[in-house]
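User: quick one, sequence for these tokens?
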């Protein structure tokens, strides 16, 4: 790998880091935003889902035009729009203003991830692409391990000012933008080749008409809903129901992020060795018990709480990486890029639906205590069981065929 290629990878990883962090930081900020605006649980869920739903819409819309544009320009325009929305969040003083800025950030942010992966695929040959992809996708783990805890520590350091994480993310983005302009070359080599390919509209029709692809997208949607249902209200549940402090909450995300990072390497190797479907099935099965344990958590020391969340994050990572690996084999290579782009839209939609559904199920009192959180656990388990059964039907025999 040349020095220029390493610089490009570092910059793309930086863009992904800020993009992931901006979305992930909203959930632990629940404890700050709810009392600040005096909003209900359902109103907070709109703040989370606004980003996901608008990202899904923009991802779907741009899938029909981006292959005819310079990837660098598309990435830059999307990233600048994303930064504008994120920085605006840092100056929000009303609930409606924050809701609008989250929607703007999500609309532009929904394009970033797909463009980063497309640029890597254009620059690196298939033989070198795996290492390049892993270098960039590691930014998600870094956002979990470093970004979220650090952002929460900043919030607490500045006297519980929830604006700070958004301004911090925007500042990092402002530093990255001129470096992207300088070091990433124009990416237009793919434009001439698009004339020989099916249009996104044709690919979308093929997906709708192909039962395996329809089923795979439904499977992906269910898995995302089942996973995200309990996430938006973890922090208020831990603070206002279980009595842990705001200063302890960052440790939960640090422990979970470290567990995810370790699980990604260990379970990834096990999936290659023992098969994707068996590892997926085991991860889902044991995660059902962790969901119930977390949403009906007994009185335990904080160290045990960290262990609970570490195991849950690790199992969730095992579910996700094996599911994505199996889904990538549902379509032939020439359709894989577009299919995975549409899958990204479906996942964003699943996240948004889960957040809104969670907001309708739970409610909070004036002291911030969350009620019916265990209901989210029951619904999550039912959805995950449906995803497990569907996955075992859809991907049966796939490992044996490889």
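Assistant:
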């Amino acid at each position: 790998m040349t020095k220029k290629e390493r610089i490009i990878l570092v910059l793309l990883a930086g863009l992904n880091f800020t993009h992931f962090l901006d979305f992930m930081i909203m959930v632990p900020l629940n404890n700050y935003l709810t009392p600040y605006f005096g909003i209900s649980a359902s109103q907070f869920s709109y703040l989370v889902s606004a980003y996901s739903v608008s990202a899904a819409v923009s991802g779907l819309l741009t899938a029909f035009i981006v292959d005819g544009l310079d990837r660098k320009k598309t990435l830059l325009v999307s990233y600048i729009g994303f930064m504008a929305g994120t920085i605006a969040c840092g100056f929000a003083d009303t609930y409606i203003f924050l809701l609008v800025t989250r929607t703007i950030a999500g609309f532009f942010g929904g394009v970033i991830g797909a463009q980063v992966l497309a640029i890597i695929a254009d620059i690196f040959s298939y033989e070198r692409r795996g290492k390049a992809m892993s270098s960039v996708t590691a930014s998600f783990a870094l956002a979990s391990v470093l970004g979220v805890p650090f952002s929460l520590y900043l919030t607490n350091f500045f006297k519980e000012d929830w604006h700070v994480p958004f301004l911090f993310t925007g500042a990092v983005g402002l530093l990255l933008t001129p470096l992207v302009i300088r070091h990433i070359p124009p990416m237009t080599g793919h434009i001439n080749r698009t004339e020989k390919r099916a249009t996104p509209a044709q690919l979308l029709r093929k997906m709708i008409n192909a039962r395996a692809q329809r089923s795979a997208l439904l499977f992906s949607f269910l898995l995302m809903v089942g996973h995200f249902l309990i996430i938006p209200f973890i922090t208020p549940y831990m603070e206002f129901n279980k009595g842990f402090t705001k200063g302890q909450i960052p440790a939960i995300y640090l422990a979970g992020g470290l567990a995810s990072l370790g699980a990604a390497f260990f379970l990834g190797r096990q999936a290659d060795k023992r098969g994707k479907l068996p590892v997926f099935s085991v991860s889902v099965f044991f995660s059902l018990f962790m969901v119930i344990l977390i949403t009906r958590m007994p009185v335990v020391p904080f160290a045990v709480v960290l262990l609970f969340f570490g195991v849950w994050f690790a199992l969730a990572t095992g579910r996700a990486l094996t599911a994505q690996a199996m889904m990538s084999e549902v379509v032939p290579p020439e359709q894989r890029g577009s299919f995975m782009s549409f899958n990204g839209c479906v996942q964003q939609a699943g996240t948004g639906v889960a957040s809104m559904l969670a907001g309708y199920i739970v409610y909070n009192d004036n002291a911030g205590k969350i009620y019916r959180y265990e209901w989210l656990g029951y619904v999550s388990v039912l959805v995950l069981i449906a995803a497990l059964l569907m996955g075992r039907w859809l991907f049966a025999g796939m490992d044996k065929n490889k």
